[in-house]
């Protein structure tokens, strides 16, 4: 179904939602795509507001509507016709309405044409961005990251004509090869989730103590082990050294988590480097987008493994949602503005 079009006041723009598994971020965006206000709520798709005794609460989508109203009901009331656009797990099979995966490679226009509508009792429907499916012997998927990538590409439009490698570190880190509005291929590494599982549910965490500040020396030590003379032993062997170095007094309890982080990120970047060696296309630009301290760690790891110093992108999800809204005709392209919601700069190592 084609996206619906609504008449809204000239000063209004878009309500953009980054709706994941554990949290919901909402952006009230102005007519030039600038972020006017941001809100964060714990209403991820697996943690929606509880039901009440109302009959309306048993209707499909009722819990999602409650989350939406709690997060930005006043925005909706102030501008009833404001279009709504969301990306992330809200479009999964467990979400408000499933937005089918699109195959890669894909483009901004394809994502805009593939929006799925979740009808609402009152007001305009929620438009949901589809995820991406990369077919192959080992298929790969993403939901939400495709929108971040489009936001990054929008910020780089005037500075990068060739291929761009975009790193999205997090629970499931993504590395995306993109070019001129097209997402060509991507890799996923479960680095963040594995770190949390090892720290919280294995013997490695028993000797760890929280550090007041990040231990960059311990992190660098983990990176060096991951690429050192024993690298052929692999990650499963290396992670046990977190315990043995602690038992022998060579690694303080407060340094062990950062050392483990270095091991895991080091093996991720080493794998990425090998994958790049097998790819005929060499990215001309390297960008990181994510939580600042995590991006800082990845920047250190990348340069340790011979990559160029990356650029850091901010507000990429909001920018990506705005770009999709423009391409889908949900909002009208404004006159050029001197400001842009995307900022980029060198990330210090």
Give a verbal description of the structure:
- Helices cover 33% and strands 21% of the residues.
- Mean pLDDT is 89; it is low at 5-10 and 340-349.
- The longest helix has 22 residues, at 256-277.
- The chain has 10 helices and 16 strands.
- It is α/β, with parallel strands linked by helices.
- β11 (164-168) and β12 form a beta hairpin.
- The protein has helices at 62-78, 108-113, 145-156, 191-201, 216-226, 235-238, 241-247, 256-277, 292-304, 316-328; strands at residues 12-19, 24-30, 35-41, 84-87, 102-103, 106-107, 116-118, 126-128, 132-134, 140-142, 164-168, 173-179, 182-189, 285-288, 311-314, 343-346.
- The strands form 3 sheets. Strands 6-13-12-11-14-15-16 form a 7-stranded mixed beta sheet, sandwiched between helices. A 6-stranded mixed beta sheet has the order 3-2-1-4-8-7, with helices on both faces. A 3-stranded mixed beta sheet has the order 5-9-10, with no helix packed on it.
What are the main properties of this structure?
349 residues, 33% helix, 10 helices, alpha/beta, disordered C terminus, 21% strand, 16 strands, six-stranded mixed sheet
